[in-house]
Design a protein that fits this description.
Chain lengths: 512, 487
């Protein structure tokens, strides 16, 4: 029975929240519904982790556990196929955290709180649905469900040049998904050597490994670019700064924290998982692009003066690092990539939450017009410093763990090409320190620029709660990385389906 | 003559019965009872539609001139569903001050055209086909001119009349070439006789046939009448033109191309259709971007939608047929939802401009919500039905496996992004833009509300409930004989 699978509840709970919201009249009722929903998701996520660890401890070595499959569209062999491995579990936990914190960060959303949370939870439905699915069709469907609410969330509740940003973001992401859809159709028609057994189930496709090499050579770029747009890969990243700058706080959090991870996860799970041949042949092209993302994003962040723009470019840099590490095709770097997704998701959500809280008080995001905030609102100031330290990779916080793993893994590729790019990408750490410290210096220290700021107050309880949840998570990853690593690492154990891609380690690049 | 042959056509007979009942009601009942004609028609037609679900029995009659397959049953059922919604939607308008005296004619003409479309779909002889085509086209010209008080309505009717007649003439010229080639007008005979011979005359005949039907479907470059006619005609008629008339033409087009010219698929019409699809989708989309009048806007959007529908034809297989039927069904619901909102607002305030819709969400949230669902469904956003129909029609086209078709699908996909842009413009107007002179809050008439609820539920459920597509896929695979000349 479908109801006995715990995974389906990650979609059902947000849908129930949508239903509950439709009937809530007062602000109090709305808050009760959304907090209940977000808490339920957190509990589910915690339960999932325990369940997953127990299953692994019991010695189950299947790629996907907690699987279930129910026929949906028989003529195309489309199933509602559910299943998770360590990576999905980690992503689900991340999403639950961000949704939970996001609810508290948008405690006083105005106007139309009901509609806001409707779209917010529709977006979450898409995100969770994407992570629990292992069927190409349902994955793609949930992926698009997660994208479209952004248009209205930014358009209605955003600030600044919101019409332009919302349209740009939507069109670019949907443009990416157009390529993606073509790629998925191509994969479907080559999913099995037997034309009567075409399937959409990614595990089956990977096991069949029947996609002809000539087809892989163009299906891989289509899928990688399709997801890469959402992963803010250079040169398809331009939606990200505008979009984040205009979005309301919680939406920025959810978008940078979770939605951009859909891109990395998709590249990993569909493009590389299903097409290892092309991944090896063409990976270096995307490696160059993501390398540019990492460095370019960091340098761009140095010259911005809008807090949200700084953070959006910083996201481009950090998300670029995720794709960069995935393309290194070795266990260490890939583990690092997943850790980086987790770390960046939490840390960026924290950043955007803080920026939203500061903006809500000062009504400006221009760092030139602010200063000395540490003495005015010490709580927010300290949180900002913590987020900044996590971002520039201070040991003990999450950024250090993930970036260290990535760079060690990347350096394991012994050829000059990979090493040069690893060194280039490493240099972004220095640049990150520059822009983080620049903001911290101008914004928090120095003298107060605007006398009106002296009357401002520090964080209130729901703001404190949202930030504490995120900081706790960031610190937890930084202090106990082994726990998270142990969840992820099963995916890469030899004998699994990642053998195809991991076998290419050390092989020369196609043009060498 | 064996009269039992008529029993092969239960849907046509049923529709004729509905027609006669409406006619008798209109003619013989006293003036006072007349005002319930609308409800009477809706109820009778609803009963007829429900009865349709249970009709079955494949076979041919009239020495093969007429054929019923499970696919034709399904096609007619789809048209019925759309017709029912159109009838419910039109109730308020049909009872309005100027139309009420002629509402009997409105319903009778509408039902007559539907009968013509039934015959188009089931005809297996070109003579019968042309009869159906004309029965479907000519009453529509009268319907387009129904708004007697408006000059635009007359102009639109004249344009529609001329193009309809002109396209019929071209179509029949094509038929005469076909007759010269094959010596018969039976679909099956032609298909057998033209097999193997790829003469220049066949190409010319195909060009004329495709152009003739292309006018009905408003494929580019035969689309120039569409926007003016859609804008000028009464909204109830426009919605009928844009969904039912177009859907029926698409079904008939598929039957003709696959069943009659199937053997010339790869040699001739695949490439003609390829070019026409690229043009139709792109031109329709690019012109839609600039439209401010929502009826013109939907006219261009429906042009590009016709291009997507044609992807099901170019697939030339059962999968294509099933996807095409599904696409038309979804398109019927989505477009009628959009027209339902437009009609409701037009009947109340007379406004049809996109700028008038600014801030609609604040004053009439449910109308704005329905319109948004319609736009998302037309753009192919999940979880609404349009996403599923787009996905399936692309899969159906790619089923051919040729790289050229993949390129075509890519072009279509890029066009969905353009279309998303202009559909979002409507959403933006309703939800994001603010305006001083917004449309005030008003109560939507009961009939319009019912129609909107039906269409909205359809948009949400048709995709999620897989049984509908499965039913259509089964109907299509039972009628796979249609494609025997392609493979």
């Amino acid at each position: 029975m479908i109801w006995s699978n715990i995974l389906i509840y990650f979609v059902i709970v947000p849908l129930l929240v949508l239903g509950g919201l439709a009937f809530s009249k007062s602000m109090k009722a709305i808050r009760t519904v959304v907090v209940t929903g977000a808490t339920a998701l957190m509990v589910l996520a915690a339960y999932l982790v325990i369940e997953f660890l127990q299953i692994r401890a019991a010695g189950v070595t299947d790629e996907m556990v907690l699987t279930g499959s129910w026929v949906w569209y028989a003529p195309f062999n489309i199933h509602l196929a559910l299943g998770v491995d360590g990576i999905s579990v980690v992503m689900i936990v991340l999403s639950a955290f961000i949704v939970f914190a996001g609810v508290f960060a948008s405690w006083k959303i105005d106007p139309l709180p009901k509609q806001y949370f409707l779209w917010f939870f529709l977006l979450s439905t898409g995100v969770f649905g994407f992570f629990i699915s292992i069927d190409l069709f349902t994955m793609f469907m949930f992926y698009e469900v997660a994208l479209i609410p952004m248009y209205l969330l930014i358009g209605v509740w955003g600030s600044g040049n919101k019409n332009y940003s919302a349209m740009k973001l939507t069109l670019m992401l949907m443009g990416g998904s157009a390529f993606l859809m073509l790629g998925l159709i191509g994969i479907y028609f080559h999913s099995s050597a037997n034309v009567n057994e075409l399937t959409m189930n990614i595990v089956e496709i990977a096991q069949n490994n029947a996609i002809p090499h000539s087809w892989q050579m163009w299906l891989f770029p289509a899928v990688f670019v399709g997801f890469g747009v959402l992963g803010a890969m250079f040169p398809f990243h331009t939606w990200s700064p505008d979009g984040h700058a205009s979005a309301p706080t919680a939406v920025s959090m959810l978008h940078a924290g979770v939605l951009m991870k859909l891109g990395g996860y998709g590249c990993f799970r569909i493009a590389i998982y299903l097409m290892p041949f092309a991944a090896h042949e063409l990976g270096w092209i995307f490696l160059i692009l993501t390398g540019v993302s990492v460095v370019y994003g960091a340098f761009s962040a140095c010259v911005q003066s809008d807090l949200k723009y700084i953070n959006a470019y910083s996201s481009v840099s950090h998300c670029g690092l995720v794709l960069f590490a995935i393309l290194m095709y070795n266990t260490t770097a890939m583990t690092g990539a997943i850790m980086q997704m987790l770390s960046h998701g939490l840390m960026t959500a924290l950043f955007f939450a803080l920026i939203g809280m500061i903006y809500g008080r000062t009504h400006t995001r221009d760092i030139r017009k602010m200063g000395g905030l540490m003495q005015i609102m010490p709580y927010l100031g300290v949180c900002y410093v913590i987020a900044g330290m996590a971002s520039l990779g201070l040991p003990g916080l999450s950024g250090f763990v993930s970036e260290m793993t990535i760079f060690i893994g990347s350096f394991q590729n012994s050829d000059t090409f990979h090493r040069v790019f690893t060194i280039v990408a490493c240099s972004s750490i220095v640049v990150t320190a520059v822009y983080i410290l620049r903001v911290v210096g101008k914004l928090l220290y120095g003298k107060v620029q605007d006398p009106h700021h002296l009357e401002l107050t520090d964080a209130v309880w729901h703001e404190r709660f949202a930030t504490i949840v995120l900081i706790a998570a960031v610190a937890a990853i930084g202090c106990f990385p082994n726990f998270f690593e142990s969840i992820i690492k099963d995916t890469f154990t030899p004998g699994g389906i990642y053998d195809g891609i991991l076998a290419t380690i050390g092989q020369p690049l196609p043009w060498m | 003559m064996d009269y039992s042959q008529f029993l092969m056509m239960p849907q046509e007979l049923g529709l004729l019965l509905v027609f006669l009942l409406v006619f008798l009601f209109d003619t013989f009942l006293p003036k006072k009872a007349q005002s319930s004609l609308s409800i009477f028609t809706c109820v009778v037609f609803a009963l007829f539609t429900i009865a349709n679900v249970f009709m079955a029995g494949n076979g041919t009659s009239f020495s093969g001139m007429y054929e019923q397959t499970s696919a034709t049953y399904a096609m007619k059922l789809i048209l019925n569903a759309g017709m029912l919604i159109v009838l419910i939607q039109a109730t308020k308008w049909a009872n309005s001050e100027f139309v009420a005296v002629r509402r009997g004619e409105f319903y009778e003409l509408l039902l007559a055209t539907l009968l013509g479309m039934y015959i188009m779909i089931s005809a297996r002889h070109f003579l019968l086909f042309v009869i159906g085509l004309e029965t479907a086209s000519l009453p529509l010209a009268a319907l387009v001119a129904f708004d007697k008080k408006h000059y635009e309505s007359h102009e639109a009717a004249a344009k529609y009349m001329f193009t309809a007649v002109f396209s019929s003439a071209i179509f029949m010229l094509g038929l005469s070439f076909v007759y010269a080639l094959a010596g018969s007008l039976y679909f099956n005979d032609i298909a057998v006789n033209i097999m193997g011979g790829q003469s220049a005359l066949l190409i010319v005949a195909l060009v004329f046939v495709i152009s003739g039907v292309g006018f009905k479907l408003s494929l580019v470059p035969f689309h120039l009448w569409t926007a003016d006619v859609y804008q000028g005609a009464p909204t109830a008629v426009t919605s009928y033109l844009s969904v039912i008339s177009k859907g029926a033409a698409a079904f008939a087009f598929l039957v003709i191309l696959a069943q009659v010219f199937g053997s010339a698929y790869s040699a001739a019409w695949e490439w003609m259709l390829y070019a026409v699809i690229v043009l139709t989708i792109t031109v329709g989309n690019l012109f839609a971007i600039r439209q401010r009048d929502l009826k013109r806007f939907l006219a261009f959007s429906s042009i590009s939608q016709a291009g997507y529908i044609m992807l099901g034809v170019i697939a030339g297989s059962e999968v294509g047929l099933a996807s095409l039927m599904f696409y038309v069904l979804v398109y019927v619901f989505s477009n009628l939802a959009a027209f339902g909102v437009i009609a409701a607002i037009e009947n109340k305030t007379g406004k049809v401009n996109m700028d008038d819709y600014n801030g609609l969400f604040k004053t009439n949230p449910w109308l704005a919500f329905s319109m948004m669902l319609a736009m998302f469904s037309l753009a192919g956003i999940p979880p609404f039905a349009g996403f599923f129909s787009k996905f399936f029609i692309f899969v159906g086209a790619c089923h051919t496996g040729s790289v050229a078709i993949y390129v075509l699908v890519l072009i279509a996909l890029i066009n969905t992004i353009i279309s998303l842009y202009y559909y979002l413009l409507v959403v933006k107007a309703m939800f994001i833009k603010q305006d001083e002179c917004v449309i005030p809050t008003f109560k939507v008439a009961c009939s319009e509300k019912v129609a909107l609820i039906i269409t909205t539920l359809g948009i949400i459920l048709i995709g999620l409930a897989s049984c509908i597509y499965t039913y259509l896929a089964e109907a299509a695979s039972n009628s796979s004989a249609m494609f025997m000349f392609i493979h």
